[in-house]
Write the structure tokens for this entry.
Amino acid sequence: MRITAIALLAVLFVFVCKGAARAESGEIFSVAVGDLKISMILEAQRDSGLDFLIGASPEDIAKFIPSGSYPSVVAAYLVQSPDGAMLVDTGFGREIGRHLKSLGVSDGDIKTVLVTHAHGDHISGLAKDGKAVYKNAKVIAAKGEYAWSADLRKHLRAYDGRHELITPGGLETGGTEIRRGVYAIEAYGHTPGHTMFLFESKGEKLLIWGDLTHAMAIQMPRPGVSVTYDSDPAAAAEVRASVLKYAAENKIPIAGMHVAYPGIGDISADPENPGGYIFTGKTE
Ligand SMILES: [Zn+2]
């Protein structure tokens, strides 16, 4: 009898732990930003190894990534506003449509697609078999990224002229307003035209920073660590440090395409680690 009770408790314990783990790794996470509803849509999740890191000392790796791997995701963001539905990046295009549907949005409802940069995990979902996935959308991308990426130019051909090339503004000037309450901010380094988008509604803000980070576990405490897929690792490190400082000082919540679930959270300076930051994921 006693053994059965212990076994039952053990089963219950495993079940409860599994449930908790699931809650920390959902596929969609939404927040309200004024009149906007902004949702992280998870497309893929995996653990990444140390091979991609540039500039991480053995001591830092032992301290911040003791297991030798860190969680890594691919995500896109849906912005629902009174002006219509907007997508920021499109992931690989494998799971996004399914998740949009669960949010009550069809591909045809997307009026605008904002592109942070032209890597495959961000723009592959734009077109399928040479045809636009978001048939009613206009695609917005930075001029510099368009000039740099043959892949982006190829995908945009499916949109038959429905694209708009923009010049993002600097962080210190608050960026370039490209739609009501939507600001494009340059964050070059990861790619030559890498762009962040700041959303503002009723005094609330959220900065979707694209690929400013890939390995939060070490790039928060050590923003100087870059990754091998940064076009210019030194520039990427520099822009990361200034954006983290900006987000922390101005208390602007952030969201990132490779920030693990919930993908959206707050940045604060780490008082015990000068130059380092702490990310706190939103809980509601
Ligand atoms: Zn990426």
